[in-house]
Amino acid sequence: MKTVLVVEDDIGIQKQLKWSLSDYELVFADDKASAMTQLRRFEPAVVTLDLGLPPDPANASEGLACLAEILAALPECKVIVLTGNTDNEHALKAVALGAYDYYQKPIDADVLNIIIQRAFKLTELEQENQALKASSSAQLDIIGNSDAMIRACRTVEKIAPTEITTLLLGESGTGKEVFARAIHKQSPRATKPFVAINCASIPENLLESELFGYEKGAFTGANKTTLGKIECANGGTLLLDEIGDMPVSLQAKMLRFLQERVIERIGGRQEIEADVRVICATHRNLAEMVASQTFREDLYYRISEITLTIPPLRERGHDIIIIAKALLHKFNKEYHSQIHGFTDNAIQAMLLHSWPGNIRELQNKLKSAVILADNKLIDAADLGLNGNNHNKLDTLRKVRELAETQAIRHAYAVANTNLSKTADLLGITRPTLYALIDKYRLHDLRNTEPDH
User: Based on the number of CB atoms within 10 Å of its own CB, is 187 exposed (0-12), middle (13-18) or buried (19 or more)?
Assistant: First the structure.
C-alpha cells in the first residue's frame, strides 16, 4: 500500500482520516518534530499537513515552518495542506512555499481521496520522466547515468534533429566518436552514411586527398578518379576527428567547404556540391590554438556553433562500474569466458583510479583481465590496479561501515546522547540502531545513555 504521512494533532481528525483513507497506509505525527521523524523513516510520497500545529495551533506559523522543513528534506514530496474554511491567506502562502495543494475543512473523504490520488499520479509521472531521462543514454548507445552524462545526452537529443555544426570536446578516449554517431543516429540523416576521418592519423600531404578526393592524373600514382571522404558522406554525416591537428594550410579549404558546401577534387576544376552534416571533435584547446595562431579563428567559430564537452571517466562516478559491467558482458561473449563480475577490491580500485586513458584504458584493462583471470571474479590485481593509491579503503564493506559509524556518532552527539532521539534523527527504529551499535561495536554509545 502507498504510504501517506498525516501531520495532525487532533485525535478525532486522525481517526476520521484513518477511516476515510483506507486505501493507503497512514502514519501519523502530531507536531513538527514527530513529522520530521516519520518523514525520515518512511519517506512518503504524499503528506497531509494541518497548519495549526502545537505549540500555537491557533496560528499557522508552526505548520508553515513544518512545510518548509519537509520540502527541504524531501523536495519531491507532495504536501497537501489542510486549513480552516476561512483561512485562505495561509493556504495560499503554503502553496507559494511549495505545497502541492490545499484543502479546507470540514473534510469530505471523497474529495480528499481524489486530491491524494492526483498527487500520487503526479509522483508516478515524475518518476517515469526521471527514468526516461536516465535511460536516454542507453537509447543513444551511451552507457552511464551520471548527471553529467544525462545532461550530455539531453544536448544530443536537442541538436540531433538540426543541421547545426557541432564541436565535441573531450580528452582522448572519452568516446567522442560514440557521441558523434549518436547525433547521426538521432538525426534525419540516420539512414545515410556516417563517415569518420582522424586528422591526426593521416600524413599532412595525404589528408587533403583523403578529404576532397582527386582526379585521374592529378599526381603521380593517381591512376583513377577517387572520391574523398566528404563525397562519400554525401547525404549523411562527416566526423572530422582531432580537427585540432589539421594543418593550417588545409584549414582555409575546409572553411570554404563549410561555408559554400562545395568542393573541388585535387586536380579538378569543377565545383561539386556536398550535402553533408559536419561534426568536429578534438582533445585540444582550440581557443588557445587560435590565440597562438595555429588554428584559424574563422574556422573555429564556424565549427563550434554548438560545443558539447564530454566529461572524462574520472568525473563520472559510478558510471565507471556500469561501463565495466557492460564491457565485461561484451568480452565474455567475444572470448567465450565466464567471468561473473568483480571483487569489492576491484570495484574500489576502479573508482579510485584516475583513468588518464579514459574509456579506452578501461577497455584495455578489462580485455586483458577477462583473458588472463584465474577466478570467476576479476580482482584489482587482474586489472593492474593494485598500486598504493588504491589501498585507502580495502572493500566497499569498510566504506559502508565507516559512513554508517560516522552518521551514528554524529546523530548521537546532536541528540545529546539520547538513543531514542538518535534513532529518530537517522530515520530508523531503536532496535535497528541497537543492532548497528552491536554490529560496529559502538558500545560506548549504549553505555552512556542517560537513565529514564
Answer: buried
Q: What is the pLDDT, as a whole number, of residue 240?
A: 97
Q: Which residue type occupies 139?
A: Q
302: left (phi over 0), alpha (psi -120 to 50) or beta: alpha
DSSP3 helix / strand / coil % (the chain, rounded to 5): 50, 15, 35
Q: Taking Cα atoms as reference points, which of 345, 340, 347, 326 lies closest to residue 376?
A: 340
pLDDT, one tens digit per residue, over 294-314 is 999 999 999 999 999 999 999
β-sheet bridge partners, residue 138: none
Cell of 368: 586483458
Query: What does the pLDDT look like over 267-292, one tens digit per residue?
Result: 999 999 999 999 999 999 999 999 99
Q: What are 196's strand-pairing partners?
A: 239
**Terminus-to-terminus CA distance in the chain, angstroms?**
36
pLDDT band at 85 (very low <50, low <70, confident <90, very high): low
CA–CA gap between residue 255 and residue 302 (Å, rounded): 8
In the predicted model, is pLDDT for residue 104 greater than 90?
no
Element spanning 306, H or E:
strand 306-309
**DSSP summary character for residue 198:** E
Look up cell 578489462; give the residue: 366
Rounded Cα–Cα distance for residues 337 and 372 (Å): 10
Distance CA 350, CA 314 (A): 9
Give DSSP secondary structure letters for 376-428.
SEE-HHHHT--SGGG-S---HHHHHHHHHHHHHHHHHHHTTT-HHHHHHHHTS
Neighbours of 430 (CB within 10 A): 12
Contact 50, 9 (CB under 8 A): yes
**Reduced 3-state DSSP string for 79-125:** EEEEECCCCHHHHHHHHHHCCCEEEECCCCHHHHHHHHHHHHHHHHH
Give the mean pLDDT of 436-448. Answer: 73
Give whole-number Cα distances, 125 to 76, 99, 128, in Å. Answer: 12, 18, 5
What the block records as the C-alpha cell of 89 is: 491567506
Within 13 A of 431's CA, how many CA atoms are on the CB side?
0
Which has the closest alpha carbon to 194: 137, 131, 141? 141
pLDDT, mean of residues 214-221: 90
| Other Cβ atoms within 10 Å of 68 Cβ, number | 14
Q: What does the alpha-carbon distance between residue 398 and residue 394 come to, in Å, rounded to a whole number?
A: 7
What residues contact 241, with CB distance under 8 A and at least 6 apart? 176, 177, 180, 196, 197, 198, 199, 200, 280, 281, 282
